[in-house]
């Protein structure tokens, strides 16, 4: 019968396989070389060289132990981009048609320039609006009134200035200017100042001669401060 012939043929193919591929050596897949006898006649050995197309279907009913099967073919799914809706395409085409029919009917006025130089226009520059302060606390003013006026001088020449010229003599900060010295004296001692002269001594200190206004007496102010 056909079944007995198929079994005989299957054993014959198995013996041929063992001759070409002895046990203990890795054997390739039976797909393409051998098929089950009940499915159909054995495929020629040249079928191994064929590249399976997308329409080829392999049926493997039975695989004898010892065969290493091929990995399954990966299915490839082609995804086509959906075509744009007809209404949207039609509206786009009509818009383009109107633009083409209208054309460009613009009249640009030429600006007359009477000078060969061009100055960049001064545009509006807005102040910064920071989202958060860059410093947690504002910096302390290191040169305040108490740092500007260090101490009054009580030398003989300073006393002579108090008596003769209505002038007080102070040692001040070397970085302080005359305006700062005048404001510091007014704030600390509550007196009006006519003018301020300054000099830097050889030892590096700054000396300030503060001439008081005619309404104030330097001798009374010196007593109040505690110089005399």
Automatic annotation (TrEMBL):
GO terms for biological process: translation. It comes from the Eukaryota. Its main location: cytoplasm. One of its GO terms (molecular function) is structural constituent of ribosome. Keywords: Acetylation, Citrullination, Cytoplasm, Isopeptide bond, Methylation, Nucleus, Phosphoprotein, Ribonucleoprotein, Ribosomal protein, RNA-binding, rRNA-binding, Ubl conjugation. GO terms for cellular component: cytosolic large ribosomal subunit; nucleus. Pfam families: Ribosomal_L23 (PF00276), Ribosomal_L23eN (PF03939). InterPro entries: Nucleotide-bd_a/b_plait_sf (IPR012677), Ribosomal_uL23 (IPR019985), Ribosomal_uL23-like (IPR013025), Ribosomal_uL23/eL15/eS24_sf (IPR012678), Ribosomal_uL23_CS (IPR001014), Ribosomal_uL23_N (IPR005633). It is found in: Cytoplasm; Nucleus. SUPFAM superfamilies: Ribosomal proteins S24e, L23 and L15e. Component of the large ribosomal subunit. The ribosome is a large ribonucleoprotein complex responsible for the synthesis of proteins in the cell. Binds a specific region on the 26S rRNA. May promote p53/TP53 degradation possibly through the stimulation of MDM2-mediated TP53 polyubiquitination. Component of the large ribosomal subunit. Interacts with LYAR and GNL2. Interacts with MDM2; this interaction may promote MDM2-mediated p53/TP53 polyubiquitination. Directly interacts (via BIB domain) with IPO5, IPO7, KPNB1 and TNPO1; these interactions are involved in RPL23A nuclear import for the assembly of ribosomal subunits. Interacts with IPO8. This is Large ribosomal subunit protein uL23.
């Amino acid at each position: 019968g056909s079944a007995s012939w198929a079994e005989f043929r299957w054993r014959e193919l198995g013996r041929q396989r063992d001759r070409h591929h002895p046990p203990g050596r890795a054997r390739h897949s039976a797909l393409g070389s051998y098929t089950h006898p009940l499915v159909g006649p054995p495929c020629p050995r040249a079928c191994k060289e064929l590249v399976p197309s997308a329409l080829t279907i392999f049926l493997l009913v039975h695989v004898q132990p010892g065969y290493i099967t091929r990995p399954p073919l990966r299915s490839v799914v082609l995804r086509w981009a959906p075509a744009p809706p007809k209404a949207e395409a039609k509206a786009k085409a009509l818009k383009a048609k109107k633009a083409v029919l209208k054309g460009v009917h613009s009249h640009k006025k030429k600006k007359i320039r009477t000078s060969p130089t061009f100055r960049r226009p001064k545009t509006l520059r807005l102040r910064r609006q920071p989202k958060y302060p860059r410093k947690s606390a504002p910096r302390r003013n290191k040169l305040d009134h108490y740092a500007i006026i260090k101490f009054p001088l009580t030398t003989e020449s300073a006393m002579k200035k108090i008596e003769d010229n209505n002038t007080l003599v102070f040692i001040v900060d070397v970085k302080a200017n005359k305006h700062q010295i005048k404001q510091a004296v007014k704030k600390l001692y509550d007196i009006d100042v006519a003018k301020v002269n300054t000099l830097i001594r050889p030892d590096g200190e700054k000396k300030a001669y503060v001439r008081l206004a005619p309404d104030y007496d330097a001798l009374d102010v010196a007593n109040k401060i505690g110089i005399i």
